[in-house]
Amino acid sequence: MLINQGSAARLDDATPWNGLYEQAAEKQNDLVSEVRTAVDYGMDDPEDSVEMACAAAETAGAVVQALESPWALYTPQDAATVASALFVQLQHSADALLELRRSVGRIVERGEADLVAPAGAGQPANLGDALETLQSLSDTIRGPVARHASTTVRALEASRVRPRFRPMPTRP
Fold first, then answer.
1. What is the pTM of this model?
2. Is 6 left (phi over 0), alpha (psi -120 to 50) or beta?
3. Which one of 6, 86, 94, 114 is at 20 to 30 Å from 155 when CA atoms are compared?
4. Which residues, other chains included, contact 117 with Cβ-Cβ below 8 Å and sequence gap of 6+?
5. How many beta carbons lie within 10 A of that of residue 57, not counting itself?
6. What is the pLDDT along the chain (172 residues), one digit of tens a residue?
């Protein structure tokens, strides 16, 4: 159960916005541990890349499902931790799109694909278009994260919780 209380979960001026994510990820967490173990073991072939991308997609969908519960979060501070993690996820997604672009570039360098100029208007998209799109999407994602992550996470973390009796949720 996550209820951010006390100074351990607070953000001070010296703590970056992703500090809440880092604190939560360092706690005993089987899901995070599984991913970190896979990374530590080594990921250097296409199967690893595809599996990790699919796991990331499944995880993103699972977060949506988890947040749909009326008791998904107890406090704005819980929301700050989730926001911190989601902004980190966006940052990593931007990095992944850029690295995917580089990986395709390495495929071209090995001679396993031909890089052609981006298609003109009305033409079907090609590899050149795909590489431009990956770069553009990566850049587009980075902008809002850089502009909004810190203020959003800090605003949620600083929100006051009204003291009142709240019944604890029961699991079916």
1. 0.83
2. left
3. 94
4. 128
5. 10
6. 444 444 345 677 778 999 999 999 988 788 888 888 888 888 889 999 999 999 999 999 999 999 999 999 999 999 999 999 999 999 999 999 999 999 999 999 999 999 999 998 999 999 999 999 999 999 999 999 999 999 999 999 999 877 765 666 677 6
At 29, is the secondary structure helix, strand, or coil? coil
Tokens of 44: 């250097």
Are 114 and 108 in contact by the 8 Å Cβ rule? The answer is yes
Radius of gyration of the chain (CA): 20
- Report how far apart, in Å, the C-alpha atoms of 100 and of each of 10, 21, 44, 111 are: 35, 25, 13, 17
